[in-house]
Design a protein that fits this description.
mainly alpha, 2 strands, 72% helix, single chain, globular
């Protein structure tokens, strides 16, 4: 029965590939595939739960595959089923059934009918990857798939300005959680000197309890996990991305930001609880984060004029309470709370169009003038702050993103191919000199790995802030990856050729595909500047899809070998190199944002020509 866990992932993943064979206008076969999938999903979830209960509620583990193995690293896919998985699985199956049934009629004759259901099926596979994960590597695969599906559904109406803009804003927050999870995996590897399963977290906790450097590593692991969960579940101060993510279709908002996706942070805390359960400071941190989010989100939700924003902040407030319940150890209460909140928010979002329609008619025929009443200065202040959402968006933009944009603007001289080539060539020369004469660089007492990683970050920030040619910005991302590889190669001294091929092979193949797409788009009217939205998806939808694959390949998404290669390369950075790991984390953070920005600016948004209908700036 442990091998049947594969069906939870294989069933929606197979259905996703099947839907790709039909065109958008063939709603009936696509609907049949989705219908059979959702019914089979419920039968599988309920049957497995019954079998699991009948066998004494014993946790089930299954090692799916080993993708890479070396002397000190094993990249394996492991599945795990326990009471947490059981609850998340049943709730997910039922909500997938409800939302898919509703969407069959809601999305009828929509231009993106097939695209919507294909993305929902891919999300179901990613969701099951997460809840069935037996180690961090498997969880991270689902984490990445879920983030991609979220991006695609927020930007579902890709001919509008706000959905495209808010998709980038949401993926910016998601990328923070991705990088934090990568750092947690990296630090856990150095703490335990192996790739551990979630069932071994108790052993990792004992190692961290030894004190000294081990205790410091344990603290960093917990901080990264809590921060990743905080961002993913839209807790303070990252709450403002949640209502922005509601730009997609109402039914996708229901399953993503009302029910399943937004609770993944809670799942991460529950799954890693054995590691931090004895750390009082971690519990206090989680409780404070949840309490602040619950209070502020409630104040914001009560004064918001749009129904989706009200529901988004109400959901964030309830998740804040779940953070508190998780920290104090009431795990069964958390699971019940999760199920209740997920079904309630899904119901509210699905019926919201009908409710709004009824209220508009009711207000028209039964209008009553609002009664004026005096407000105290304190009440008025809280009201204005609530309407402005406590300026969380402005805070994040001003203090998190703007400094890096300012730096990137100052680095626009890197747009020159000559300067880029010279810097990369110098990096290669440094590495080759070290390889042929190991003592040469050591005698100079110069932190060459940190310097090379700084150059990589300069390339990335220049691409991230570029308003010039998309081709030059794309080349800068390849140059950044080259400097990252060389910096880690320099600090590690020796890297297996297979590890190098995993990383470089996936990145180069993605770069070539993306470069080909941009060259073809450039041939349309010789304009691919990043100073505006172009909307080329109208003329070149297939090129847009190929460039999307190139973008996620450039990030190390699990479609190329770079996914394994990046994870392996991370392990070569030691814990006594904090500057190097911070620079590496920033590189991977902004590489994704720069790549998605190129995708959005070139292929999505309102079309720049008047011979296509142009959506209003506001949705």
């Amino acid at each position: 029965m442990d091998q049947l866990l594969v069906l939870f992932i294989g069933l929606p993943l197979l259905s996703f590939f099947v839907t790709l064979f039909w065109k958008n206008r063939n709603e009936r076969p696509i609907g049949l595939v989705v219908r059979y999938t959702k019914v089979a999903y419920i039968i599988l979830s309920v049957s497995y739960l019954v079998w699991w209960i009948a066998n004494g509620l014993t946790p089930v583990s299954f090692k799916l595959a080993t993708l890479y193995r070396s002397d000190n690293f094993v990249f394996a896919l492991e599945l795990f089923y326990d009471e947490i998985t059981a609850v998340f699985s049943i709730v997910g199956a039922l909500l997938f059934f409800l939302v898919a049934t509703f969407s069959k009629y809601y999305m009828h004759r929509d231009q993106g009918y097939k695209r919507f259901f294909s993305t929902i099926l891919l999300f179901a596979a990613g969701y099951n990857f997460i809840i069935l994960s037996g180690n961090f590597e498997t969880l991270f695969i689902g984490w990445e798939i879920k983030g991609l599906c979220s991006f695609l559904l927020i930007a579902f109406y890709w001919n509008r300005y706000l959905p495209v803009k808010n998709a980038l804003k949401t993926v910016s927050n998601y990328r923070i959680s991705d990088v934090m999870l990568m750092l947690a995996m990296w630090m856990m590897h150095h703490l335990t000197h192996r790739n551990i399963s979630f069932t071994d977290l108790g052993e990792a906790k004992q190692i961290a309890a030894q004190g000294g450097a081990y205790a410091a590593m344990g603290v960093l692991v917990v901080c990264m996990i809590v921060l990743a969960a905080t961002v993913k579940s839209a807790q303070f101060p990252f709450t403002s991305w949640l209502p922005r993510a509601m730009e997609g279709p109402t039914s996708s908002s229901a399953i993503f930001y009302g029910s399943l996706s937004v609770h993944i942070g809670i799942f991460l805390l529950l799954r890693t609880h054995p590691f931090w359960e004895d750390m009082l400071w971690a519990k206090i941190l989680i409780i404070v984060t949840g309490a602040v989010t619950a209070v502020l989100s409630t104040l914001i939700a009560r004064v918001q004029p749009t129904v989706k924003t009200q529901i988004a902040y109400s959901s964030a407030a309830q998740i804040g309470l779940m953070f508190i319940e998780t920290a104090v150890g009431f795990h069964w209460l958390v699971l019940i709370h999760f199920a209740g909140n997920a079904f309630l928010r899904t119901y509210q979002l699905l019926v919201s169009p009908s409710v709004l329609n009824y209220l508009v008619h009711h207000q028209y025929f039964h209008y009553e003038a609002p009664r004026e009443r005096k407000l105290s200065a304190v009440a008025a202040s809280f009201y204005v702050l609530g309407v402005k959402e406590w300026n969380l968006d402005a805070f994040m933009f001003r203090f998190v993103w703007s400094p890096f944009k300012w730096i990137g603007v100052k680095l626009q001289f890197l747009q020159s191919y000559i300067i880029t080539t010279l810097l990369v060539a110098m990096a290669f020369a440094i590495v080759l000199a070290n390889r042929f004469n190991a003592g040469l660089l050591a005698g100079m007492n110069v932190p060459f790995p940190e310097i090379l990683m700084s150059v990589a970050l300069m390339f990335v920030l220049s691409s991230f802030s570029s308003r010039g040619s998309a081709l030059k910005a794309w080349v800068l991302l390849l140059a950044a990856h080259a400097c990252i590889i060389l910096a880690i190669w320099l600090t590690a001294g020796q890297i297996a050729s297979l590890e190098f091929l995993y990383y470089a092979g996936g990145i180069v193949s993605a770069f070539l595909l993306g470069y080909y797409c941009l060259q073809r788009i450039h041939g349309i009217d010789q304009d691919i500047l990043l100073n505006r939205f172009h909307g080329y998806v109208y003329e070149a939808e297939n090129k847009g899809l190929l460039f999307l694959l190139a973008v996620i390949g450039m990030l190390g998404f699990p479609i190329t070998t770079a996914f394994v290669g990046i994870d392996v390369f991370f392990t070569h950075v030691d814990t006594h190199q904090p500057v190097l790991i911070v620079l590496l984390a920033l590189c991977f953070l902004f590489i994704e944002l720069a790549a998605f920005r190129i995708l959005l600016r070139i292929f999505m948004g309102p079309h720049k020509k008047l011979y296509h209908p142009v959506a209003y700036r506001s949705s």
